[in-house]
Design goal:
Layout: E1 2-5, E2 10-15, H1 23-32, H2 42-50, E3 60-62, E4 64-69, E5 72-77, E6 80-82, H3 93-101, E7 109-112, E8 124-126, H4 129-143, E9 150-154, H5 158-166, E10 170-180, H6 187-191, H7 196-212, E11 214-220, H8 226-242, H9 251-260, E12 265-272, E13 275-284, E14 288-296, H10 303-319, E15 323-328, E16 339-349, H11 352-378, H12 386-389
Parallel strand pairs: 7-9, 14-15
Antiparallel strand pairs: 1-2, 2-4, 3-6, 4-5, 5-8, 6-7, 9-16, 10-15, 10-16, 11-12, 12-13, 13-14
Helix pairs in contact: 2-9
Organism: Undibacterium rugosum
Pfam family, one: FemAB_like
Protein name: N-acetyltransferase
């Protein structure tokens, strides 16, 4: 644990284990920073670390930047030293190859993100403007130490991206698809806002699943038993296997979630003739539902859309949840009422030559992203969407 005095009151420390901060101190900072993001809760992060999913052995070395006023944690930036670019969802593989082609080391690099979770949320946690300024200064100091090729802060709010741009970070944009609840009273109420073609398609998809005889069980976190987790993990692993990949998360991680943060969990299990066939796991805060993991043991037409999306929309409408974030990528979500939302990331490149080259690339990419978003908006599912008309 490195420690540097910033002034007579505050001290900057690089913490190599979240457990050195502790649940109570970390939770108090989240409360002070008004952050209710379930992916930044101590239980979620601790489950990643203690389960062995995100550890130095898997290429995730904790390097959290913190600012302390005595024993009080007043600012922090969740940070990892990475030896690869897996599990990030903002892709820089081409940058790594370019470094390698010029006999330069791209790894280790610094990464601020929730491992394996492309979820937008605050990355700079601070009690006030003063401690935020000190956190930015400490971050810049670490970036300029020469120990890392670069620093990447992913899926952060636009205001934090702007603050990082002023500190010398390059800005990057992406696209995700989110759904907003317009105070719908029922699923049919939502469907009536869509154009005729999309409304008809969704009803047809739901009808196919219903006629096949599927039943759906909604389970809150405190209702989940080990048997549910075992089935869900089987589905989760099959999803990765079907995509010729290896799962990032193990059973211990999910069991820890179930035990330590049940109020943030919601699972949907699809059954056919009383036998479970598919499952989707959601996380939630007061105003947002996050679609995270899905899988099935048998393929059935439209079962994915019903389990991972429509059941989630039903839940949002039923419980008044304002936003549904369906995860990374997926243009197919557009036809199902999700809207394109711009995501933000910030990147500090230490090498001046590569910094100039990457900055030029990002300028061109930003224009392409803006054009892409405009095309997506022209193909939205809604008959009338006032918020988009002003753009």
């Amino acid at each position: 644990m490195k420690s540097v005095t910033t002034d007579r009151h505050y001290r900057m420390r690089v913490i190599t284990s979240l457990s050195d901060i502790g649940k109570e101190v970390w939770s108090q900072l989240l409360l002070t920073a008004k952050c209710d993001d379930p992916f930044l809760q101590y239980a979620f992060l601790d489950a990643l670390h203690q389960s062995g999913s995100a550890t130095p052995e898997t290429g995730w070395q904790e390097q959290h930047i913190t600012i302390w006023d005595g024993r009080e944690l007043v600012a922090a930036c969740l940070m990892y030293s990475k030896s690869h670019s897996y599990g990030e969802y903002v892709f820089d593989w081409a940058w790594a190859r370019a470094y390698q082609q010029h006999q330069l080391d791209y790894y280790p690099k610094l990464l601020s993100a929730v491992p394996f979770s492309p979820i937008p949320g605050p990355r700079l946690l601070a009690a006030d403007a003063r401690t935020l300024h000190m956190l930015l200064a400490a971050l810049r100091q670490l970036c300029e130490s020469g120990s890392y090729s670069s620093c990447h802060i992913l899926f952060l709010p636009e205001m934090q991206q702007e603050a990082l741009a002023q500190a010398g970070f390059l800005s990057r944009q992406g696209i995700q698809f989110h759904w907003r609840n317009q105070d719908y009273q029922s699923f049919d109420d939502f469907l009536l806002t869509l154009d005729k073609k999309r409304r008809k398609n969704i009803r047809s998809e739901r009808k196919k699943v219903q006629e096949r005889g599927f039943q759906f069980q909604h389970l809150k976190g405190n209702e989940l038993q080990e048997a549910h987790w075992l089935f869900f993990k089987r589905c989760y692993d099959l999803t990765y296997r079907n995509h010729h990949s290896s799962p990032y998360l193990n059973l211990d991680f999910f069991l820890r979630l179930g035990a330590q943060m049940p109020t943030a969990l919601h699972m949907v299990i699809a059954s056919l003739e009383e036998q479970p066939v598919a499952a989707a796991l959601f996380l939630r805060s007061e105003h947002r539902l996050y679609g995270r993991y899905w899988g099935c043991v048998e393929e059935h037409p439209c079962l994915h859309f019903e389990t991972a999306y429509y059941q989630g929309l039903d839940l949002c409408i039923r419980e008044g949840i304002q936003w549904f974030e369906g995860g990374a990528q997926g243009e197919h979500k557009l036809a199902r009422g999700f809207q394109p939302e711009t995501t933000h990331s910030a990147h500090y490149i230490h090498h001046p030559g590569f910094r100039d080259a990457i900055q030029d690339f990002l300028h061109r990419e930003a224009k392409e992203m803006q054009e892409y978003r405009q095309v997506l908006l022209q193909h939205q599912a809604y008959r009338h969407f006032p918020d988009q008309e002003a753009e």
